């Protein structure tokens, strides 16, 4: 079972990287120009939480700044903007609505986007993106309220037992 899963993961088709031009994230990049991103080099022995609390005081900034723990999932915070999200979501289908607030971008773990999908095309569950600044990200997509999704062809409206 685990060997089959490993083989499926190894041969997963992610498609071509989606190139995101600078104009799609320029506003977010400008508003985050004073942000400082850091990485703990030895997380087994260094506490991320402690570093976030102590570094501002070592920099002489005290309570003037605040820190957040960022994980490696999805879009990095300097690039998160409504235009970037809409650019990525539009590759799945026509964007109908988006639940997004620019003020809370550092606090969100997902963004809900309503997209009109084509039932003939297979669903995409992952998408690699590359920004003009050469940073990349892997985005995962979760679909809500879909009744039947074939696990063989990733299309909607039939089960694997009826896959053409």
UniProtKB/TrEMBL annotation:
Chain ranges of the Zinc knuckle CX2CX4HX4C domain: 117-164
Coiled-coil regions listed: none
Source domain of life: Eukaryota
InterPro entries to which the protein is assigned, alphabetical: At4g02000-like, Zn_knuckle_CX2CX4HX4C
Protein name from the UniProt record: F2J6.3 protein
Native organism: Arabidopsis thaliana
């Amino acid at each position: 079972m685990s060997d089959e899963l490993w083989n499926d993961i190894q041969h997963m088709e992610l498609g071509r990287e989606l190139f995101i031009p600078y104009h799609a994230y320029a506003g977010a990049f400008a508003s985050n120009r004073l942000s400082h991103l850091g990485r703990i080099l030895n997380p087994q022995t260094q506490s991320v939480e402690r570093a976030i609390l102590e570094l501002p005081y070592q920099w002489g900034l005290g309570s003037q700044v605040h820190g957040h723990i960022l994980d490696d999932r999805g879009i990095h915070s300097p690039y998160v903007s409504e235009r970037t999200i809409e650019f990525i979501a539009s590759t799945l289908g026509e964007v109908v609505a988006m639940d997004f607030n620019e003020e809370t971008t550092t606090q969100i773990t997902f963004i809900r986007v309503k997209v009109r999908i084509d039932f003939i095309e297979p669903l995409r569950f992952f998408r690699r993106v590359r920004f003009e600044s050469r940073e990349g990200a892997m985005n995962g997509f979760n679909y809500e309220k879909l009744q039947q999704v074939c696990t063989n062809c990733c299309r909607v409206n039939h089960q694997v037992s009826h896959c053409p």
